[in-house]
């Protein structure tokens, strides 16, 4: 049995059960919306889905650590085996009935991504990767795009919901990219955006103010699909650094250069 295949099996099981819960809340329109902070939504569906995921992981791997969006406050990644769980990435989309939201589950060990699984709930698209084994969509191999010229590229991004400290320059680079690409898209779920990079739907992606459970699984997908994932400095601190750039190698580097032109050194470093 391939290394981490049992973990992937458990992640798929947990994501599938969580998806059933999420769809039931969605179809019955019976969820309650609360706020953790400004524009920071949490619903009954988030809490119920997370409870299901954590229960399944703990039953299978009782000694593992877990960092989950709705129940964790930890700001560093342990050396031990640690699961990163986002029960609904795209809660605002879910709450408004906009059909892009995902379950994201990752396993990190010795501070490296080992396994990642993302389920886009509405289309039931299962994206997964095991380190060194490639990236897959519904068990079919996927790869980043081969586009090298930015004028033929499509870029994904997101707008932070509660940290608007970089907004002025963020809007400037958005406008700048509109003149130099075929388009910029904002689906509203970073894990899905990164999966789109891995599958070649987007050629690149950038955002700030993200959390580890937003990117911990899908970042591995991009890497295993042949892409590059870094922080805004071009370094490796993209999990907790709250700044991420991803893409095929050429478009990733194009975005890094664009960021350097539009943000101060302090803003890039974070």
UniProtKB/TrEMBL annotation:
The EC number on file is 3.1.3.25
Q: Which domain of life is it from?
A: Bacteria
Q: Which SUPFAM superfamilies does the record cross-reference, listed alphabetically?
A: Carbohydrate phosphatase
> Which keywords does the record carry?
Hydrolase, Magnesium, Metal-binding
Where are the bilayer-spanning segments? none
Record's catalysed reaction(s):
a myo-inositol phosphate + H2O = myo-inositol + phosphate
Co-factor requirement: Mg(2+)
The molecular function GO annotations come to: inositol monophosphate 1-phosphatase activity; metal ion binding
Q: Name one GO biological process term.
A: signal transduction
Q: Name one Pfam family in it.
A: Inositol_P
Q: Where does Mg(2+) bind?
A: 69, 86, 88-89, 214
Top EC category: hydrolase
Q: Which family does it belong to?
A: Belongs to the inositol monophosphatase superfamily.
What protein name applies here?
Answer: Inositol-1-monophosphatase
Which species is the source of this protein?
Halalkalibaculum roseum
């Amino acid at each position: 049995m391939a290394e981490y295949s049992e973990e992937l099996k458990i992640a798929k099981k947990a994501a599938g059960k969580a998806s059933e819960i999420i769809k039931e809340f969605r179809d019955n329109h019976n969820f309650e919306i609360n706020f953790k902070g400004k524009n920071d939504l949490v619903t009954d569906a988030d809490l119920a889905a997370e409870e299901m995921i954590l229960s399944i992981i703990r039953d299978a791997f009782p000694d593992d650590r877990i960092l989950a969006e709705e129940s964790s406050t930890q700001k560093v990644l342990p050396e031990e085996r640690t699961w990163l769980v986002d029960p609904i990435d795209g809660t605002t989309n879910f709450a408004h009935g906009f059909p892009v939201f995902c379950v994201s589950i990752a396993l990190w060990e010795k501070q490296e991504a080992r396994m990642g699984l993302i389920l886009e709930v509405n289309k039931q698209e299962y994206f997964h990767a095991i380190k060194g084994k490639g990236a897959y969509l519904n068990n079919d191999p996927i790869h980043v795009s081969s586009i090298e010229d930015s004028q033929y590229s499509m870029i994904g991004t997101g707008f932070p919901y509660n940290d608007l400290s970089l907004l002025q320059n963020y809007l400037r680079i958005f406008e700048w990219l509109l003149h130099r690409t075929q388009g910029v898209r904002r689906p509203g779920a970073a894990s899905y955006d990164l999966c789109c990079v891995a599958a070649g739907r987007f050629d690149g992606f950038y955002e700030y103010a993200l959390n580890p459970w937003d990117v911990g699984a899908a970042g591995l997908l991009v890497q295993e699909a042949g892409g590059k994932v870094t922080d805004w400095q071009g370094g490796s601190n993209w999990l907790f650094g709250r700044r991420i750039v991803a893409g095929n190698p050429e478009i990733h580097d194009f975005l890094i250069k664009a960021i350097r032109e539009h943000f101060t050194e302090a803003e890039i470093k974070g």
